[in-house]
Amino acid sequence: QVQLIESGGGLVQAGGSLRLSCEASGRTFSSRYRMGWFRQAPGKEREFVAQIDWSGRVTLYADSVKGRFTISRNSAKNTIYLQMNSLKPEDTAIYYCAADVSTWGTPSAAEYDYWGQGTQITVSS
Q: Suppose 41 and one of 57, 61, 66, 93 were both cysteines; which one would form an S-S bond, judging by CB atoms 3.0 to 4.6 Å apart?
C-alpha cells in the first residue's frame, strides 16, 4: 500500500505564494511512479493541476496555472512539491497529491492509483 501525506496548505492573500509538499511512503511505493497534483473547489469537479515523471525532468501543467506553479520532486525523500506563486482567489480549493504506478500518462484523475487526504488552500482577495 502507498500513503501520501500533503502539507503546506493555508490562507494567503492574492498575489502571495505557498509551497505544498507531499511525502509518499509504503512498501509498494516506487520512485518511478508518476506523481501529480489535483484540486477541487466547492461545487466543482476535481481538476488536474500538474504532474511530473519519475526523473523529474518531464512535467505538465494545466493552462490555468502555467507560469505560476512549479512541480518538482526529491526522489531521495519520496517527496514532491508544488510551488505556487501569484496566487489568485480562483486557486482556492482542496489540493490533492496523487501517485500513478505508471511512469507517464494523460492528466486524468482516473489514471492515478493513490491519493492523499488533501490540504486546503484559501486565497483571499
A: 93
